[in-house]
Amino acid sequence: MAGLFMATCRREFLLSFRRKSDLVNPLIFFLMVATLFPLGVSPESGFLAQLAPGVVWVAALLATLLSMDALFRSDYEDGSLEQLLLSPQPLFVVALAKVIAHWMMTGLALTLMAPLLGVMLFLPAEGMPGLMLSLLLGTPTLSLIGAIGAALTVGLKKGGVLISLLVLPLYIPVLIFGSSAVQATVTGLPLGGYLALLGALLALALALAPLAISAALRISISS
């Protein structure tokens, strides 16, 4: 299974680099939200500093959601997804590898880009470690949960809206704990509790999401 996991990751990386727009679009959207938010609300630095944790986390959530529709779409359109379902290899390993590769191309890039948005929104320097750590633990959970919605809607022509309706309620705990972790570091409160909760959500998602994705793919293809 380790060989299958590595081969799937390698394939996803190669396909991602061939479709550079899928890599760039979430990052551009992430940057645009942070750029336009001060124009629509207020450019006052103190006000933006208070809202920066929530704004960065909402932007990361929406950017991740924007990229989820394409996770299984190309495999479904060229027929390779049906071949994966028919193969004797465990489907949950393939699903986990695809999600991990997706996170490394989008979620990890968003995490590395987050300090720039924090500076643009006047986030205090004390909040940067909390921002990075919370996104590092939270964005994989967002990808795993979003992949379940992508698997359920892969057979639909316009599944992007349905993905949002399915997974946004499940994103709320990650959003709350992630933004609270950043706010805690800014105010000097302990950070460990929020990171522990984000880690627990990630562990739960790693254990259950691949199985749910496999079942959702079988339901979508068979229907």
From TrEMBL:
Residues in a coiled coil are: none
Annotated Gene Ontology cellular component terms: plasma membrane
Q: How does it sit in the membrane?
A: Multi-pass membrane protein
Annotated transmembrane regions? 23-41, 47-72, 92-125, 131-154, 161-182, 194-217
- Supply the alphabetized keyword list: Cell inner membrane, Cell membrane, Cytochrome c-type biogenesis, Membrane, Transmembrane, Transmembrane helix, Transport
Q: What is its main location?
A: membrane
A molecular function GO annotation: heme transmembrane transporter activity
Q: Where in the cell is it found?
A: Cell inner membrane
Q: Name one GO biological process term.
A: cytochrome complex assembly
Q: Name one Pfam family in it.
A: CcmB
Could you identify this protein by its name?
Heme exporter protein B
Name the InterPro entries for this protein.
Cyt_c_biogenesis_CcmB, Cyt_c_CcmB_bac
